[in-house]
């Protein structure tokens, strides 16, 4: 594997040149473009004894193993590949294992990964078979190896969104990059001349009136060439089908054409070299493959590059590039009549045909050139074998798709760090199976059982996760922070805690034990249970190398209460996720609240204060929570049913829309440590009335109208202030000059500095 200054990649592929398929073409096109950047060695099966055991092909050193029999291919080859890899390890430093598909060859890479667990393993998914086959094929062994390899691979490259989604369904939790196969534009994106087209038509004995349909594929069940042949009965004798490819169904398909008495309309071309496909595509009116399953469908892309409109099904990876009416037409699965109607539509509607040809050629040029694909793969290789960044475990109480600031923060920051090359994993509480696709591993711990059992399960899962990590980043003091502090104690791993709430105070308010601000709470006498929780607080705070606060309120308070237990601290304010443009506020609009219906939010005081106003405006409460019924009863008791509206929680985009249509956003919380809603409202130009017990940056807080959350009268006076149009416009004008520049990128950058200093 040659030059010392270049990284060495060991590839495992069940087949390679001279055999030509999607995977083999991908390997060839990528390696020949990146041979100046990496040394490639490839292990493959020796199908024929005439093929040399070792040779160089376009800069790739190829080792062929086996004796050319089915027995050794299926049972012996994976172990031969493993042994060959071990032999190579003795002579060369291998920087990356690359398995092409879940295949016999990739089993060898899997076994070597067990031998060398710190060696990065990239798995490429190119499969085009049905999910049933992927799960149960080879007597269930295929599904078995899928699960094993997805668990062992450090990184997955899928050629379509369909394969990426399927990998997640099968348990993949690592980073997945969707990088499709490409098209050799030099072979396909060119203009054919009339003379060459006439020559090809004459070679095939085609009439001038014949309209040519083409397909190129393996002749197997999944590619549904039988449906394409049957469609000719609905198209008539003026259509001719060219079939490029061979396979186990070839004789069966020829017999079908005879049975339907259309054998003269179906021309079987056999295996056509890629360099010659252009000649047949150039005379074709339509390309179609009505697939029953499909990983991506490179033949479609090649046809699109030539300028031949395509018809396909919505199976597998086809929707990645085929947009109905834009870059092709969809047909139904196993429906020859519907397929025929779509082929006829493309043949006869010149306006649609020309539109699709233009759009599809543009798409292929912009997204599917092998040069671009190779560049993306170079990025993957570089990321995997670059000097390692710190490995960080996020310990969180919740994670997406659950709603909440903590879940959003973890997903955004973990994703941002991953893009910067950090190795990130997430452990959170949640429902198993509810994880979205992520570029990093995510593990969920069930909330079932009592809190002691829940914390024990979390502790054991985290202890296992941190074995290969450098740092634990916990997102609270109790649900994730306490187990994280114990793991840190036993493992010696460094711990950082991020705080933006106070679990104990919130619980006491919700249970009706107290009704006070957070600062006042810490002046009150404590019960035995509260003292126990405060002991946990002190243990976790003392164990942490650093406390990151997302607000300006908690640091001062916690330094007073827990000062001697806090080593170092830093404030990193949350960013704004702005989704809409700033607009002029609507004075005639209603007054709105966004958030949970819980006691801490102090909505009882807001409803009572609003009820005293003499205005036609309504109070709109948007959210959900256990306190809704109690609040509805209060509204009924105060005879405010016509003036106070309850609305269910809405997606973030709708939040911004509602803000812009109304006059004022009110946040009456007893203590609002990190009022993101206030910042979001300001970002779109809507005035805010906020509790004075908040953790906003001083430069923002000083410009806002604030009130004592425990004083109904003070809140009433502030609301009345906003009913005066002059007051309202003056306040709105002042707020429009307010700037808050914190972004997700800046928060990620601040975290990188923190982690690098700690480690």
What does this structure look like?
The chain is an alpha/beta fold and 759 residues long. The protein has 4 domains: 7-178, Glycogen Phosphorylase B (Rossmann fold, 3-Layer(aba) Sandwich); 185-368, Rossmann fold (3-Layer(aba) Sandwich), CATH 3.40.50; 387-571, Glycogen Phosphorylase B (Rossmann fold), CATH 3.40.50.2000; 591-736, Rossmann fold. The protein contains 30 helices and 27 strands. Strands 3-4-2-1-5-6-7-8 form an 8-stranded mixed sheet, sandwiched between helices. Strand 15, helix 16 (405-419) and strand 16 form a beta-alpha-beta unit. It is globular, with a radius of gyration of 32 Å.
In short:
It comes from Candidatus Doudnabacteria bacterium CG10_big_fil_rev_8_21_14_0_10_41_10. With 759 residues, the protein is α/β, with parallel strands linked by helices.
């Amino acid at each position: 594997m040659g030059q010392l200054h270049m990284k060495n990649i060991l590839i495992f592929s069940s087949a390679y040149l001279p055999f030509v398929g999607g995977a083999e073409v991908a390997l060839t096109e990528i390696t020949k473009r990146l041979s100046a950047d990496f040394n490639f060695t490839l292990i493959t099966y020796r199908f024929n004894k005439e093929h040399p055991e070792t040779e160089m092909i376009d800069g790739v050193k190829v080792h062929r193993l086996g004796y050319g029999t089915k027995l050794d291919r299926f049972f012996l080859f994976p172990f031969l590949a493993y042994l060959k890899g071990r032999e190579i390890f003795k002579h060369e430093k291998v920087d990356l294992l690359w398995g092409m598909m879940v295949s016999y060859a990739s089993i060898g890479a899997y076994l070597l990964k067990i031998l060398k667990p710190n060696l990065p393993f990239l798995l490429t998914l190119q499969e085009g078979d049905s999910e049933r086959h992927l799960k149960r094929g080879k007597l269930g062994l295929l599904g078995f190896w899928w699960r094993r390899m997805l668990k062992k691979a450090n990184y997955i490259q899928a050629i379509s969104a369909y394969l990426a989604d399927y990998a997640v369904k099968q348990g993949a939790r690592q980073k997945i990059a969707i990088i499709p196969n490409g098209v050799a534009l030099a072979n396909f994106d060119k203009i054919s001349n009339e003379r060459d087209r006439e020559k090809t038509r004459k070679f095939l004995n085609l009439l001038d009136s014949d309209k040519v349909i083409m397909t190129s594929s393996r002749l197997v069940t999944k590619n549904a060439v039988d449906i394409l042949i049957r469609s000719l009965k609905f198209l008539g004798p003026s259509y001719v089908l060219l079939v490029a490819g061979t396979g186990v169904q070839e004789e069966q398909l020829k017999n079908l054409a005879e049975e339907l008495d259309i054998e003269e309309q179906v021309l079987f071309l056999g295996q056509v070299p890629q360099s010659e496909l252009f000649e047949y595509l150039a005379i074709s009116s339509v390309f179609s493959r009505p697939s029953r399953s499909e990983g991506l469908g490179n033949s479609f892309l090649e046809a699109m590059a030539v300028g031949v409109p395509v018809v396909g099904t919505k199976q597998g990876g086809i929707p990645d590039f085929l947009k109905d009416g834009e870059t092709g037409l969809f047909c139904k699965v196993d429906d020859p009549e519907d397929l025929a109607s779509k082929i006829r539509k493309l043949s006869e509607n010149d306006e649609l045909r020309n539109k699709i040809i233009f759009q599809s050629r543009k798409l292929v040029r912009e997204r599917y050139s092998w040069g671009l694909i190779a560049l993306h793969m170079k990025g993957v290789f570089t990321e995997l074998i670059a000097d390692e960044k710190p490995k960080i475990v996020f310990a969180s109480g919740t994670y997406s798709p659950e709603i909440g600031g903590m879940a959003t923060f973890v997903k955004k920051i973990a994703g941002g760090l991953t893009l910067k090359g950090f190795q990130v994993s997430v452990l959170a509480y949640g429902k198993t199976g509810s994880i979205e696709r992520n570029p990093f591993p995510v593990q969920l711990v069930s909330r079932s059982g009592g809190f002691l059992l829940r914390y024990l399960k979390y502790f054991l899962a985290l202890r296992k996760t941190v074995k290969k990590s450098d740092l634990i980043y916990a997102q609270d003091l109790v649900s994730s922070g306490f187990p994280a502090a114990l793991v840190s104690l036993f493992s010696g791993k460094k711990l950082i805690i991020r705080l933006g709430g106070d679990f104990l105070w919130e619980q006491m308010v919700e249970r009706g034990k107290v009704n006070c601000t957070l600062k006042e709470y810490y002046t009150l006498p404590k019960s035995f249970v509260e003292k126990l929780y405060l002991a946990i607080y002190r243990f976790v705070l003392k164990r942490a190398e650093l406390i990151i606060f997302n607000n300006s309120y908690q640091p001062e308070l916690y330094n007073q209460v827990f000062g001697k237990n806090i080593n170092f601290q830093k404030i990193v304010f949350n960013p704004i996720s702005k989704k809409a443009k700033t607009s002029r506020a609507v004075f005639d609009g209603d007054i709105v609240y966004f958030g949970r219906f819980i006691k801490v939010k102090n909505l009882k005081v807001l409803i009572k204060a609003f009820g005293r106003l003499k205005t036609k405006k309504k109070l709109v409460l948007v959210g959900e929570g256990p306190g809704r019924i109690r609040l509805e009863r209060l509204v009924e008791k105060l005879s405010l049913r016509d003036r106070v509206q309850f609305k269910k929680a809405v997606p973030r985009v709708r939040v911004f829309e509602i803000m812009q249509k109304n006059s004022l956003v009110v946040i009456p919380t007893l203590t609002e440590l990190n009022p993101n809603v206030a910042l979001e409202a300001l970002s779109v130009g809507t005035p805010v009335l906020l509790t004075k017990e908040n953790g906003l940056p001083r430069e923002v807080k000083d410009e806002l109208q604030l009130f004592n959350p425990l004083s109904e009268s003070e809140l009433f006076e502030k609301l009345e202030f906003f009913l005066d149009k002059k007051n309202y416009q003056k306040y709105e004008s002042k707020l429009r000059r307010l700037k808050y520049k914190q972004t997700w990128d800046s928060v990620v950058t601040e975290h990188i500095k923190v982690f690098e200093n700690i480690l």
